[in-house]
Write a structure and sequence with these properties.
Blueprint: H1 3-61, H2 65-72, E1 79-82, E2 85-88, E3 100-105, E4 110-114, H3 121-128, E5 133-135, E6 140-146, E7 154-162, H4 167-238, H5 243-268, E8 276-279, H6 280-290, H7 292-298, E9 301-306, E10 311-314, H8 316-332, E11 340-346, E12 349-355, H9 361-364, H10 386-396, E13 400-406, E14 410-416
Parallel strand pairs: 9-11
Antiparallel strand pairs: 1-2, 3-4, 3-7, 5-6, 6-7, 8-10, 11-12, 12-14, 13-14
Helix pairs in contact: 1-4, 4-5, 8-10
Length: 417
């Protein structure tokens, strides 16, 4: 997978994220406004017909109720011209100010009116001919009560109540929030693009790391193979046994084996490995005794100081790899003459220092990278993999590891457990 493929995947993930968020938002909007529409209209219908029933019951029980009702309303409605057709002016007083009504006498003359919406004469006539109670397609409830059996002065009263939340308002709200969701989705796309990039960053780094790993590993393995191939070719041409060439080839085979072991360890080290309690002073003494011949080979003085012993919880083999690699590093890069290594163990602290020509500041931040070799170690047998192992083990157990170096004097590795 190339960086271009990763970016394409990042964009696809951002688009999917945006569509999911947009889809959820649209569904929630439609559901919310649908519930609002149903609830509002159920409430409107219940209140309206409850009012109509109360009016009719009260009028039947109290003969003076309708005259009082008329007295409290304006008895001379204004007939006016309005945009969209003829109609009646609105009236804002009376006990039924929250419901519109039209009151007719026995000659079907309009006696009192309270209209807050425009109605033409044709619409009013259609109401007079309609059943007693009905739902209008125009978005309001209406009910007609026959008053001829209740009062000799009045023929009929028509109550009307427009929906407080009608279809038009419902569609307007859905459209507005749909438009708002589209605008917000643009922002969500860039947010998704950002988080998808962050999520894929480790993948990108891992792919790059694998590419570098394969490149460096193949390079390191080709070198001893080339030496052995040359030696075998020379022996074949001369047809003579050469002990030095054989020894050199065996040495290169050893290097390959050592590198393969290191690479295997690097891939196998995980945080799920078995752990146990390790008393560090005993562990370090054991490793120094085991590596005594190697230390003698380099002719370097090793001084181990225990200021305060302590124990840690870790995999024994992993600590062995970590300390051994730091010891090898201190031996390989020590001064050729009068070199020494100082190991100090204190409370939650381990320091390994060695006399050396030092490490340039530009190399200090890179020495834990796999296959990295600073300029001074290009010609050594050091593969640049051992400190990467040390770093990985430290990261698994969340140990802090730092390196300090003074040119021409000393290099120190410090681990805080």
């Amino acid at each position: 997978m190339t960086p271009r493929d990763i970016y394409r995947t990042q964009k696809h993930l951002a688009i999917v994220f945006t569509l999911i968020v947009f889809g959820i938002a649209v569904v929630m909007e439609v559901v919310y406004f649908s519930i609002k529409f149903v609830q509002f209209n159920q409430t409107d219908e219940h209140q309206f017909y409850h009012l109509v029933d109360n009016f009719q019951d009260t009028a039947l029980k109290d003969p003076l109720f309708i005259p009082r009702f008329v007295a409290e309303s304006f008895s001379s409605p204004k007939y006016i011209k309005k945009k969209g057709g003829e109609g009646w002016d609105t009236w804002g007083g009376g006990p039924f100010r929250f419901v519109d009504f039209l009151l007719f006498d026995t000659s079907w003359s309009l006696v009192s009116v309270n209209l807050r919406q425009e109605m033409t004469l044709d619409q009013i006539e259609s109401l007079l001919l309609s059943p007693k109670m009905q739902w209008s397609d125009e978005g309001f409830y209406y009910a007609k009560i026959d008053l001829s059996q209740i009062s000799w002065n009045f023929k009929s009263i028509i109550f009307l109540k427009r929906q407080s939340y009608d279809v038009n308002k419902y569609l307007e709200d859905v459209f507005f929030f749909l438009l708002l969701s589209i605008i917000l989705s643009i922002g969500f796309y860039f947010v998704g693009l950002h988080f998808a990039g962050r999520a894929l960053k480790p993948v990108e780094e891992t792919l790059q790391d694998m590419t570098d790993f394969v490149h460096h590993a193949s390079h390191e393995l080709k070198t001893p193979l080339s030496v052995m191939s040359s030696n075998l070719q020379l022996i074949k041409l001369t047809k003579l046994y050469d002990a030095d060439l054989v020894a050199n080839s065996m040495s290169e085979i050893g290097k390959m084996d050592e590198l393969i072991v290191a690479l295997t360890n690097l891939s196998n080290i995980t945080s799920t490995s078995q752990i146990q309690t390790l008393k560090l002073d005993d562990e370090i003494k054991h490793i120094l005794e085991e590596r005594e011949l190697m230390i003698q080979k380099y002719g370097i003085l090793v001084n181990f100081k225990v200021k305060k012993s302590f124990s840690i919880e870790a995999n024994k083999e992993y600590f062995y790899i970590l300390f051994t690699n730091l010891l090898k590093n201190a031996l390989k890069y020590n001064l050729p003459e009068n070199g020494k290594i100082t190991i100090v163990l204190d409370k939650n602290f381990l320091k390994i220092s060695n006399t050396s020509s030092g490490i340039d500041s530009a190399d200090l931040s890179k020495i834990f990278e796999r296959f990295y070799k600073c300029e001074k170690s290009r010609n050594t047998e050091w593969f640049g993999i051992w400190l990467a192992l040390v770093k990985k083990i430290a990261e698994i157990y969340k140990w802090q590891i730092d390196v300090y170096s003074v040119l021409g004097q000393e290099t120190s590795f410090e681990i805080r457990f």
